[in-house]
Amino acid sequence: MKTKTRWKNTEVLVLGLARSGTEAAKLLYRLGADVTVNDQAPYEGNIQAQELEKLGIKVVCGGHPPNLVHSGLKALVKNPGIRYDHPIVEKAVQLGVPVLTEIQTAFDAADCPIISVTGSNGKTTTTSYIGEMFKEDGPKAVVAGNIGRPASEAVQSTDSSDVLVMELSSFQLLGIDTFRPKVAVLLNLVDAHLDYHGSRDEYIRAKKQIFRYQTSDDYLVYNEDDPAVVEMVKTSAAHKVPFSLKRDLPEGACVKKQAIWLFGKELLSLKEFSLPGEHNTANALAAAAAASIGGASKAQIRKVLRTFSGVEHRLQFIKEWKGRRFYNNSKATNVPATITALKAFEEPVILIGGGLDRGLAFDELEKYMGKVKAVFTYGETAEKIAETARKVSVKNVKTFEILNDAVDEAVGCSEDGDVILLSPSCASWDQYRTFEERGDTFIRTVERLTAETSTGGQK
């Protein structure tokens, strides 16, 4: 990590703590800045504010005094979730004070190459793929950003021989002024977070930030199959590396002759690829290209593509048991995410869904239920999803109060060759605090039920 940066002897305000703000404040303080942190939560019980104060950092809690922002500030570093119409942020903009996020401070301190990943979907899977592709040889990868640990924390454990792999959201990318990854990855673009950005154009502008400061010495891996992405990258100065499921691309990554190809050479057959669904294949193409450019070996890339079981709760393969395969897609908190999962399988699917009722319909699922042989639902939306399944004549449809009972029924009626898929289409908050907690419940229930049946238990 570099310690001589633009932040020495400068005055910086960090707005909003949580984990990213706390780590940004620590890093800036270590780099020699005069740091003040401001958080809405009262000082009493604010463990992060108390921790920072013990380090010698000034803390202001319980409100946002306007006088914290003045023309002498070098920058305001804000939590990505804080909107730009926040009064403190608006004042900084009016005074010409740069408004940044912690990924910029991490970049300022990094003396190793950075691979950064953004897109509307698939960021976490692709970032995780890349991290795994460096595990056994090549540079050491430190994974951070919108996944796991804040970049401002992670960068402090790197040196010049490492590679920093960062998942980046549009919220984070808005707050940069020099951030320049060696390899940027742009996966796809669909309308998202428009309540935050205000319009599709502003959302696109935020995503384009990932390559805004790149030069011809850098690389931009992009989705040749997404027309919006193709249009976006026209303004990039970086060396462009495309990936595609549809076109032969000797200069990038593609699918050809039922195999994954990388830079004009066959890497492995699709039969060897470990994850279901074209969306996962696309993520793998992007990851393979980025990791290869970053110094990962072809052997390790190939190994990861054969063995990677997915990111937790995102179409995560759990196990195969008596010819059945179990997948945890608890992260599917809306209908489009479940549609993506259903499109990933050719085998008969037993679908488990349900959760918080937000008053939305599930009609869009109907035309994707052709391979669904049974639907078991639970929670507040149990009857709504069940009715959708009945409309398309799914033969076995039942509703339950809790997830565990739905899983029990799914295992009991399953046959050799079936996929048992948790893909709820709903938020978890009717019965679980998080989608992670819901997914963990599914995994534990599967393990219990399959253990019981394999040892001559209840079923």
From TrEMBL:
InterPro entries cross-referenced by the UniProt entry = Mur-like_cat_sf, Mur_ligase_C, Mur_ligase_C_dom_sf, Mur_ligase_cen, MurD
Q: Which reaction does it catalyse?
A: UDP-N-acetyl-alpha-D-muramoyl-L-alanine + D-glutamate + ATP = UDP-N-acetyl-alpha-D-muramoyl-L-alanyl-D-glutamate + ADP + phosphate + H(+)
Q: Where are the transmembrane segments?
A: none
Family matches, as NCBIfam families? murD
Biological source species: Alkalicoccus saliphilus
Q: Assign the protein's first listed, main location to one coarse class.
A: cytoplasm
Which named protein is this?
UDP-N-acetylmuramoylalanine--D-glutamate ligase
- Which Pfam families did the record assign? Mur_ligase_C (PF02875), Mur_ligase_M (PF08245), MurD-like_N (PF21799)
Keyword Iron attached: no
Q: What function does this protein fulfil?
A: Cell wall formation. Catalyzes the addition of glutamate to the nucleotide precursor UDP-N-acetylmuramoyl-L-alanine (UMA).
Q: Name one GO molecular function term.
A: ATP binding
